[in-house]
């Protein structure tokens, strides 16, 4: 396209006023950005901005500014986003945000580490031994623990090792879909286990379980319905009773709570369920535990140890970065997830009012409104948490998602709501900057921004 500018045509052409690409790229802000982000991203931004100028959406003089504004803050993908959805554990946004301690642990572990090496003897040592020891110190009722890639992997390993060519007895009320079309019954069957479904969607009794037990039984599975609730005429069997039936009881608690959480009284935790008679508990690391994506297996030593040595365990082996982040999370349980759950609504309102006052002073049409947050796919279905949001015109939603640091809110009845419950206070400045940038683009680039 640059050649067109240099081959001197006679006709007046608005494009001739466009600065040349190489001249634009020589701007110090863009050369600095190219060092940080790589040349290709910057060149793409310039081409994009030239397109806007060519279509008269911006003035030719604004090409550099527009290109700079449209650059992402970092080249890293997946991109960092601010979760203002009011969903504390949003699977599409990477579930739990790691604590500062866990982030530092990840960086520290990213070189070579003693992950499977004993520095005292100079010999091989069990992988992740210190993370497992820390995990056990938090769950006194567990004799042994093993960590795999996610909650689904934990369940797949249990089904493969304990019930291949055998039966898993499970209530029809607990055969859940965990999202994106993945269903736990399909996962279990894919391991070579057979499902022995008992009871009905709303009612399953101890007698239903007892009648299904036979020589083909691998284990009884109790799945916590973490993303829905059945209400009305219901009955299910608690763990203490299930443990009296005979076969091993495996419990998938989903949320990853290790101890009781008083704010979420209906959410199961590993320690309580093991005490109540489960031989094995499986859970996710990146839900209410607030750690990295991983799957926890906790329970009796004679059940967990063979799982850890099963051939499939090697395929589900967890990364050293994950082990480092998990251990740091366990040692510093004040995670962003925990703060999001526990922050007083009054504190959210103060932050919202401060933000709104500074934005209104710049002429941005923002209001502070009451909102309701939820825990999310990670647990506590049906529980709502009082919250506070900034309310902006709906057109802000797309602009905020496409800004240099994307902010993801939710659109409700024609308004873009930025719910502060899942936003860390240190991100408030980022929200203010993003809203200002979105308002500026609102004024200068209306056509593109509305698409
Ligand atoms: C989330 C969840 C899973 C899946 O765990 P992932 O870590 O997403 O693989 C399985 N079972 C239950 C009950 C869950 O809530």
From TrEMBL:
Keywords, ordered alphabetically: Cytoplasm, Protein biosynthesis, Pyridoxal phosphate, Selenium, Transferase
This enzyme's EC code(s): 2.9.1.1
Main location (coarse class): cytoplasm
L-seryl-tRNA selenium transferase N-terminal domain sequence ranges: 15-51
Modified-residue entries (N6-(pyridoxal phosphate)lysine), positions: 287
Key word Cytoplasm present: yes
Subcellular location: Cytoplasm
Function field: Converts seryl-tRNA(Sec) to selenocysteinyl-tRNA(Sec) required for selenoprotein biosynthesis.
Protein name (Swiss-Prot/TrEMBL): L-seryl-tRNA(Sec) selenium transferase
Annotated source species: Streptomyces silvisoli
Lineage: Bacteria, Bacillati, Actinomycetota, Actinomycetes, Kitasatosporales
């Amino acid at each position: 396209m640059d050649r067109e500018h240099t081959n001197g045509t006679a006709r007046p052409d608005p494009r001739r006023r466009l600065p040349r690409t190489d001249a634009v790229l020589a701007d110090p802000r863009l050369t600095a950005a190219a060092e940080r982000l790589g040349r290709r991203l910057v060149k793409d931004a310039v081409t994009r901005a030239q397109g806007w100028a060519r279509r008269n959406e911006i003035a030719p003089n604004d090409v550099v500014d527009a290109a700079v504004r449209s650059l992402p803050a970092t080249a890293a993908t997946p991109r960092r986003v601010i979760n203002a959805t009011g969903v504390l554990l949003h699977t599409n946004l990477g579930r739990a945000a790691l604590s500062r301690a866990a982030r530092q642990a990840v960086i520290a572990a990213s070189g070579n580490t003693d992950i499977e090496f004993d520095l005292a003897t100079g010999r091989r040592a069990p992988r992740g031994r210190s993370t497992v020891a820390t995990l056990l110190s938090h769950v006194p009722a567990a004799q042994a623990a093993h960590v795999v890639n996610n909650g689904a992997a934990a369940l797949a390993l249990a089904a493969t090792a304990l019930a291949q060519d055998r039966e898993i007895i499970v209530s029809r009320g607990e055969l859940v879909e965990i999202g994106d079309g993945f269903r736990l019954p399909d996962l279990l069957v894919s391991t070579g286990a057979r499902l022995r479904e008992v009871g009905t969607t709303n009612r399953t009794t101890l007698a239903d379980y007892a009648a299904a037990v036979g020589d083909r039984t691998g284990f009884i599975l109790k799945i916590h319905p973490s993303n829905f609730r059945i209400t009305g005429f219901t009955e299910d069997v608690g763990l203490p009773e299930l443990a009296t039936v005979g076969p091993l009881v495996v419990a998938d608690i989903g949320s990853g709570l290790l101890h009781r959480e008083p704010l979420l009284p209906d959410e199961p935790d590993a320690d309580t369920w093991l005490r109540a008679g489960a031989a094995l508990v499986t859970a996710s690391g990146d839900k209410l535990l607030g750690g990295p994506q991983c799957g926890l297996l906790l329970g009796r030593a004679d059940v967990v140890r063979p799982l850890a040595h099963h051939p499939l365990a090697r395929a589900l082996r967890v990364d050293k970065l994950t082990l480092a982040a998990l251990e740091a999370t366990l040692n510093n349980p004040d995670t962003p997830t925990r703060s999001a759950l526990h922050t007083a609504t009054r504190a959210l309102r103060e932050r919202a009012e401060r933000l709104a006052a500074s934005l209104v002073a710049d002429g941005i049409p923002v209001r502070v409104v009451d909102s309701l947050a939820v825990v999310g796919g990670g647990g506590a279905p049906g529980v709502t948490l009082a919250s506070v949001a900034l309310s902006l015109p709906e057109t802000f939603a797309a602009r905020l998602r496409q800004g240099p640091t994307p902010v993801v809110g939710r659109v409700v009845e024609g308004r873009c709501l930025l719910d502060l419950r899942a936003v860390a206070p240190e991100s408030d400045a980022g929200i203010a900057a993003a809203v200002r940038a979105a308002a500026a683009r609102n004024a200068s680039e209306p056509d593109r921004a509305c698409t």
